[in-house]
Amino acid sequence: MDARTLKEGIVSGRLDADALNASFADLHAPLGDHEALVATDRCYFCHDAPCITACPTDIDIPLFIRQIATGTPEAAAKTILTQNILGGMCARVCPTETLCEEACVREAAEGEPVRIGRLQRYATDTLMAQGVHPFSRAAPTGKRIAVVGAGPAGLACAHRLAMYGHDVVVFDARPKPGGLNEYGIAAYKSTEDFAAREVEWLLQIGGIEIRTDMALGRDVTMDDLQGAYDALFLGMGLGGVNALTAPGADKDGVLDAVDFIADLRQATDLSTLPVGRDVVVIGGGMTAVDAAVQSKLLGALNVTMVYRRGRDRMNASVWEQDLASAKGVRIITNAAPVAVHGNGSVREIEFEFTDDDLNPTGQTFRLAADQVFKAIGQTLSGEDLPDLDGRKIAVTGPGRTSVAGVWAGGDCASGGDDLTVTAVAEGRDAAEDIHAALMRA
Ligand SMILES: Cc1cc2nc3c(=O)[nH]c(=O)nc-3n(C[C@H](O)[C@H](O)[C@H](O)COP(=O)(O)OP(=O)(O)OC[C@H]3O[C@@H](n4cnc5c(N)ncnc54)[C@H](O)[C@@H]3O)c2cc1C
Ligand code: SF4
User: Fold this and answer.
1) Span 216-231, pLDDT tens digits
2) Domain span including residue 113
3) How far apart are CA 97 and CA 88, in angstroms?
4) SS3 label, residue 291
5) Is residue 287 part of a domain?
6) Would you say residue 354 lies in a domain?
């Protein structure tokens, strides 16, 4: 341990470039040809395969595994991409341990599933490396559709509509498309600018125009879009973040985890990115794990994740929790923040233990902290939106909102898990419904 690691405060350069490159390398190295063949050999090609049912995009998993086994990974990729146009990113970020691989019969029998996610990546990477886009556009329909949000939901919707021959304009508030694939997913899950390369590849279908730095509510209104287009899809994700109400939460050094993660994803040189020596992350979801693990990888000395409920209630999967522990993150459960202490900047954060019903127990403790990340949930932001169900846009069936001609999907819409793969499925299904509605009209 050297002086840089021990230095107090929020500082850059705790680790040198070589150490950072090693820390942020691809979490799972891609399978080679032989490894992929060996992995396919474990599949039973089950009839009524439970892995298909467990996949939110219903990919025909035994079929694509057989296609890899028979030496046609490009055909396997087409099987995947037909159901999930962001199959490359999903192969990197899906919590397969709670989806297809959890359902795999070999997981139940032997505690070792077929490596579906890694095989999916092998197939999609093979095809994308050839620069091939395996879909083409149908004859133009003359219909124009506006999509708000160039995240997984918006991109999946836009691609399916373009395939049907519609013209699509995607509006996104940020300077780059990709949504959380570009600004949120942990850097070690999406290396070598994969998010941007995948968007570029997806756009090869043609018929999709992306307008960045264009926010609904700021640069364009719902009325504008409903007036100018034949249909509207809302896929703007959850742009707001929940506030921390503990006294002192406005002190310097108390930050939103999603902002830290976005800065990290956009940094060209990670050694310039400042991080605390004693970092505390509040929350129990994927965002909390990602902020904690990446702080540690940037060289923070002590990183502690604190969650108000038990481990079994965490949104982060057991696999993600184990990853955090393996990287040296301490996890404290059943504790809620009650005060942030410090003179201007945070020095300590105080927690109170809670029981299983979140009742305070009166037992408190303090953690030294020069940086605190809030990862306590995101919220929908925007005005003049269709009716809400709780804190999201209410949808029925394939993303129909309370307003005729307006569909929604992904994190901003009710129902479904807040996952990349779910957003893709919802965007795709809404596109199918939009297409059917426009062709009936
Ligand atoms: C830190 C973090 C890590 C995650 N890790 C994983 C993971 O490992 N695996 C996984 O499956 N899921 C993960 N998720 C969840 C996953 O990223 C989301 O479920 C998914 O991105 C949702 O897609 P979306 O298209 O609905 O929204 P988003 O990806 O949020 O995209 C919405 C887009 O809309 C744009 N937008 C917002 N407001 C407006 C507006 N007013 N006008 C125009 N455009 C607007 C945004 O700029 C953005 O580009 C993670 C989430 C976070 C926050
Ligand atoms: S459940 Fe497992 S063994 Fe059966 S088809 Fe799916 S991946 Fe293959």
Assistant:
1) 999 999 999 999 999 9
2) 33-129
3) 17
4) helix
5) yes
6) yes
